[in-house]
Amino acid sequence: MRTLLLLLMLCCSLAPLAAQPAPEKLHTVPGSWTNFEVDNLGNLYLLGSDMQLRKFNDQLDSMGVFNEVRNFGTLHTVDASNPLRIILWYKDFATLVILDRFLNRRTIIDLRQAGILQCEAIAQSYDNNIWLYDDLDAKVKKINEEGTVLLESADFRVLFDTPPRPFKLEDYNKKLYAYDSTRGLMVMDYFGAYQQILSHQGWRQLQGYGKGLLAADARSLTLISPDGINTRTIPLPPQWLPFRKMRVQAGKLYLLNEAGILTIYALPAGLQEF
Asked: If the chain, 274 residues long, is cut into consecutive pieces of 10 residues, what is the mean pLDDT of each piece?
């Protein structure tokens, strides 16, 4: 009798999980992809194992190809936050390549010529310049397309006993965020002035979302309020795990799995903004 009761209790506890609807799959993009980005118009930028960068519109029609990816070394990051100006960051060679909306090469910036020898993170700024974190100087700096340093933050080694080393910068909603997964989320204003650091740790990815931020770790998504203080965490469906990269944009969730397959889903319930 006791065994029967335990079985009934177990079935009741699993019933809500079983009743959860499967995430709605919208598209699977054929190919073997190593990286991707999505801009705020829904355009998709896909880097293939052949080291070609391809652009597709929100209907997945081909819009262009950049064939010179490997000419500058190993591509580390694609920044598509401005659809009119795509930034390719070659971390190992301290080089930025700026493309126009047709994926034509527009500018090459050699950071070493600007005296920046060890850049750990980059981001487009609201005023069409570029933020970066100079690890040797322990400062966030803003440069223009000529590589001229326009402004810089205070030295993190002066501000902190153990200075953060952000791997991610995000210029969003009148704030500049710098994230170190072991130290936390640092909030700055548009002039690079430090405001606060919040002890959010363990995130792999960070992006602007709604009026706040959206972060991902290995198994969940976390919504962060505009002030960076309040959070709401949503577990990811088991069928999405493990994943290589995830982005949320224009009402869709883009998921690149470890096999290099990109799948697009309808935005899951629970991702409503703060």
From this structure: 42 42 86 95 95 95 95 94 97 97 97 94 97 97 97 96 95 95 95 94 95 95 91 93 94 95 90 75
Strands (E), 1-124: 25-29, 33-38, 44-48, 53-56, 62-66, 77-82, 85-90, 95-99, 105-110, 119-124
Is 0.70 topped by the overall pTM?
yes
Please report which helix (H) or strand (E) contains residue 172, including its range.
strand 168-172
Is the four-CA dihedral 143, 148, 154, 155 of positive or negative sign? positive
Scanning the chain, the segments in alpha helix (DSSP H) are 2-19, 156-159
Backbone angles phi, psi at 127, to 5 degrees: -105, 25
Query: What is the Cα–Cα distance from 27 to 80, expressed in whole angstroms?
Result: 21
Listed by start position, the domains of the chain span 23-266
Q: Does domain 23-266 have CATH number 1.10.8.80?
A: no
Determine the 3-state secondary structure of 197 from DSSP.
strand
**How many Å apart are CA 244 and CA 204, to the nearest integer?**
10
Contact 156, 164 (CB under 8 A): yes
CA 154 to chain centre: 25
